[in-house]
Design a protein that fits this description.
Elements: H1 6-13, E1 20-30, E2 38-45, E3 49-53, E4 63-69, E5 75-86, E6 90-98, H2 100-116, E7 123-124, E8 128-133, E9 141-149, E10 152-157, E11 166-171, E12 176-188, E13 193-200
Antiparallel strand pairs: 1-2, 1-4, 2-3, 3-6, 4-5, 5-6, 7-9, 8-9, 8-11, 9-10, 10-13, 11-12, 12-13
């Protein structure tokens, strides 16, 4: 049964910033202690806070420091307060101190993801693939997924592709691959990382997983 109480109600009703899914590790450190940071799994983030899961326990209202990276490698450092906690499961953390650069990067990231993530069928999913142009088998390079959907996904790589270009995705761990088409691209000028949105052209269930029903 979901936990209720003033902290959870405040977190849900007072949310002012839209959250977007992201699957990446986050270091969380209680500010009053000098222990080793806890590594949690970030689920979603906004300019106002984040939600993460881990097995360690934090009490509500605990002051914490956080460090995590966006898909382009940009490091985000922030201080916050635990708004709600389900021990050993999930935490909602409200940012209390976010420097200007980190806030700007988060704003850019969330706005872009909100524009791309229009349907509820996309979920955060992090796995290592390789990507290459369909007509160039020797140009294969590593890539990391950020989002997955029944029909495609979003990944990060180094090479630039044009919209509409056909690419080949290979999943080395599962020894499988699929043809896809580029539908979105954004290059982060700071380190030349490329975010690539794609749709499959010849595969019905490349991810081999169930997805939520898509909205209109």
């Amino acid at each position: 049964m979901p936990q209720t109480g003033p902290h959870i109600e405040q977190w849900h009703t007072a949310r002012r910033f839209p959250r977007v899914p992201i699957a990446t590790p986050v270091e969380i450190h209680a500010r009053r202690t000098q222990g080793t940071p806890i590594i949690a799994n970030l689920e979603n983030v906004s300019v106002g806070g984040l939600s993460a899961t881990c097995r360690e326990s934090f009490d509500p209202a605990t002051e914490v420091a956080m460090l995590f990276s966006l898909p382009d490698g940009q490091a985000i450092r922030a201080f916050g307060r635990v708004a709600f906690a389900v021990p050993g499961r999930r935490y909602g953390i409200e940012f209390t101190d976010l420097d200007g650069d980190s806030r700007l990067e988060l704003e850019r990231f969330t706005q872009k993801m909100l524009g791309y993530n229009r349907r509820s069928g996309r979920v955060p999913y992090r796995v290592r693939l390789t990507v290459r142009p369909s007509d160039n088998p020797i140009a294969e390079e590593p890539a990391m997924t950020v989002l997955a959907s029944r029909n495609g996904g979003l990944l990060v790589c180094r090479s630039s592709f044009r919209q509409g270009q056909e690419i080949y995705l290979r999943w080395p761990e599962r020894e499988s691959g699929a043809q896809a088409r580029v539908v979105f691209q954004h290059t982060w000028e700071a380190d030349q990382m490329v975010e690539l949105g794609f749709e499959f052209v010849d595969h019905e269930n490349f991810w081999d997983m169930d997805f939520p029903e898509e909205g209109p």
